[in-house]
Amino acid sequence: ETKHWTVSQQSFDKKAMEEAASLLSKGEAVAFPTETVYGLGADATNEQAVQKIFEAKGRPSDNPLIVHVADKDQLKDLVEDVPEVAYKLLEAFSPGPITIILKSKGAVAPNVSAGLDSIGIRIPSHPVGLRLLQEVALPIAAPSANISGRPSPTKAEHVVHDLDGRIAGIMDGGPTGIGLESTVVDCTEAVPVILRPGGVTAEAIQEVIGTVMVDPGLAGGEKEKPKAPGMKYTHYAPEAPLYLVDEEMQQHADKLTEAGEKVGIIATEELAQMLQSERIQICGSRKDLSTVAEHLYDALRHFKKSDVSVILCESFEKHGVGAAIMNRLEKAAIGRI
Ligand code: TXA
Ligand code: MG
Known about the structure:
By secondary structure, the chain is α/β, with parallel strands linked by helices. The protein is built from 11 helices and 16 strands. The longest helix is centred in the last third of the chain and has 14 residues.
């Protein structure tokens, strides 16, 4: 009973947009493409509609949702005041892969912000997602459109796999492009803090606002807990246990194979060329890590538990987009060798 639409990025299907917007206005949950990952949207002002997101995903209720809007003008209804740095970030990166946390006015349903007095706002730049937000003209709460714990969806088929039959509609707008979720920046403090690395790099943010801090909880230390509630849960898990491999991929794969394991390898083009293995999933190029980001979640979904018993994945340096890639991989992995 899930409705399916396929929408081209060049010419919007007016009827599909109207149908999806109408379902959202009526309090239904609908998946749609953004430039980062597919989102599962619902009217942020409607508590029952928002509840449908948590149920469809199996999402813990203490994990707040990002509110998506089409235009900066909608901010004044949702947040108390917009500090200078937030304006600068919005000017520089919105529409785009950044989420700004600000003091909430309390205009959205209480289950959106999971009891926090702040709210995360994002204006996506994907032409299909943005058009849908314009059409519906409501703030739309939207987490990634996957079952909680699985890799986020970067293709409509990932959403279909996880949520078909559980939500009112799925709008297919093609592969998402950036491939990792937005950068979450807390602007409620004097110095903004990156709570989740993502599509916009810390380096790029620094160029615009001078100083930005990184949530110490992100380093995964014992005493610091991540400030974005969602960062503490299991995430992005593939079907078989995943290990990050810093070097000597071939030797590790051979050893595991000799021990009777069925080994799947996720590697860049450059490393894959040097490997001998029956099961390699190529994930972008080391020459441009944005291509790794683009294909990462698809690669994590590629190996099925019927085919492999363990997955080995190449690791990356934590510079630029590499920081966001490694943040996701360290959550997806159960260890490092
Ligand atoms: O790219 C994205 O951000 C995608 C697309 C669909 O827009 N959305 C997304 O949503 O990744 P989700 O729910 O999977 O992740 C939202 C993250 C979580 O880590 C959550 O804890 C954090 O943002 N977050 C949301 N509201 C917050 C708030 N008020 N304070 C602190 N963290 C917040
Ligand atoms: Mg998510």
